[in-house]
User: Which sequence fits this backbone?
């Protein structure tokens, strides 16, 4: 039988596939909140049961946190590529609940002028995405009786809460799970209808500090003037992180950063990205990053240092005439090229500590991680197959893109298992992931399934 029969099966069974997705979306698998531990277990059980229905040997593997789901194909064809599919079944919290137009765990199909969407927490990140691959396997297995290549599944339940169990699990199961390449469906399209393959990911560095001044909260009438005010001093400090052009002013920050080759820049300019639309969606009229770089370059190819949280003192109703004893700051950096997160952490802390006034001291959070940027080898045959499959399905040439976000698992596949990763996903920028009213376009779900079926078929031909 041909690929056409598989694609026809996908088309004919779309309603059933959507019902299965709704079943997974109803499970409140919020990994960061211990109150939902049983729900995370239930989501893992759901995936194990579903994979077994299509002939995979699937099981839930315990960790110190939420369980992993691992599955192998007992009837895998010999002499074919061996791919590992990665996804995550956990989701972000739903707060603020009052902003949801529908209950977040009661998936709803909505008709919109641009097409139907399925609205629920996790519909785009990442349950809807991971189910595109599972449904492609289901259709291929139904038509052919077997998969075209050897497939291993590896899905986690802590991606949205820092993946604390991931690295130990990967190190302990390296021999069992290492494959030719990892396939990751946790990304999006650069523009609606433009199929995209991520060829580079920014890395991540997180840090947090407390600036302490007085030995206790002080009355601003008794000490206002003579006292060191931590909120004032921390505000001064964070203004030194950038110069007037938006460039990060920490010494050594740009070590390992390289300019984007002109050929790649030219390709990005023609990839379908609409800067005006991108900015308007966030309520902005201009890009506010480094001067001299487009919004796309600022998002994909330039490093950042962002203030994510700043607090201290009294935050209740009314006023309180207090000079607080301390103030707090959370920062993250997005990394590109060969930037070293460990060296950068040292440089940022030195920058802060060198600027401390007399009578102030800094305490750093010692439990925050960092990961390097990832650059993929797009000359590999799997990337050629992916570009061809996506181009065929979406009726326009697929593009290789950068990504502003960080997906640490791609780096771990490389550093722990020595595996390259291929990231292709079907989310749109307006899917509102991590926000109220998350949605996933039904077209993304449908054509995503068809895209993976085409991809698996082309891999079998390599």
Assistant:
């Amino acid at each position: 039988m041909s690929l056409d029969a598989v694609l026809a099966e996908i088309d004919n069974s779309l309603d059933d596939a959507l019902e299965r997705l709704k079943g997974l979306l109803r499970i409140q698998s919020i990994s960061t909140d211990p109150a939902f531990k049983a729900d995370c277990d239930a989501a893992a059980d759901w995936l194990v049961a579903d994979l077994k229905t299509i002939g995979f040997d699937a099981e839930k593997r315990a960790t110190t946190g939420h369980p992993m789901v691992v599955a192998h194909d007992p009837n895998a064809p010999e002499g074919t590529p061996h791919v590992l599919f990665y996804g995550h079944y956990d989701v972000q919290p739903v707060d603020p609940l009052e902003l949801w137009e529908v209950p977040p765990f009661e998936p709803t199909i909505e008709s919109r002028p641009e097409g139907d969407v399925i609205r629920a927490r996790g519909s785009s990140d990442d349950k809807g995405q991971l189910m595109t691959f599972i449904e492609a396997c289901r259709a291929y297995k139904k038509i052919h009786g077997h998969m075209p290549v050897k497939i291993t599944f590896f899905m986690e339940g802590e991606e949205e809460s820092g993946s604390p169990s991931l690295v130990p699990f990967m190190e302990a199961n390296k021999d069992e799970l290492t494959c030719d390449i990892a396939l990751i469906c946790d990304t999006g399209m650069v523009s609606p209808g433009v199929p995209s393959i991520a060829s580079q990911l920014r890395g991540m560095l997180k840090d947090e500090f407390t600036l302490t001044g007085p030995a206790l909260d002080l009355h601003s009438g008794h000490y206002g003037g003579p006292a060191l005010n931590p909120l004032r001093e921390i505000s001064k400090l964070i203004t030194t992180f950038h110069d007037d052009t938006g460039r990060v002013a920490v010494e050594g920050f740009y070590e390992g950063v390289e300019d984007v080759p002109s050929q790649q820049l030219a390709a990005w300019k023609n990839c379908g990205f609409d800067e005006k639309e991108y900015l308007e969606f966030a309520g902005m009229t201009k890009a506010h990053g480094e001067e001299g770089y487009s919004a796309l370059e600022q998002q994909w190819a330039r490093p950042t240092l962002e203030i994510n949280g700043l607090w201290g003192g009294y935050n209740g109703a009314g006023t309180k005439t207090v000079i607080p004893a301390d103030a707090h700051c959370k920062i993250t950096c997005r990394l590109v090229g060969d930037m070293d997160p460990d060296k950068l952490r040292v440089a940022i802390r030195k920058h802060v500590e060198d600027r401390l006034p007399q009578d102030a001291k800094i305490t750093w959070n010692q439990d925050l991680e960092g990961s390097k940027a990832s650059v993929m080898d797009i000359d590999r045959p799997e990337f050629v197959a992916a570009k061809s499959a996506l181009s065929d399905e979406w009726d326009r040439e697929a593009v290789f893109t950068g990504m502003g976000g960080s997906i640490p698992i791609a780096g771990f596949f490389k550093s722990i298992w020595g595996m390259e990763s291929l990231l292709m996903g079907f989310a749109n920028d307006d899917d509102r992931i991590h926000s109220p009213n998350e949605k996933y376009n039904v077209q993304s779900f449908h054509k995503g399934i068809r895209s993976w079926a085409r991809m698996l078929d082309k891999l079998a031909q390599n």
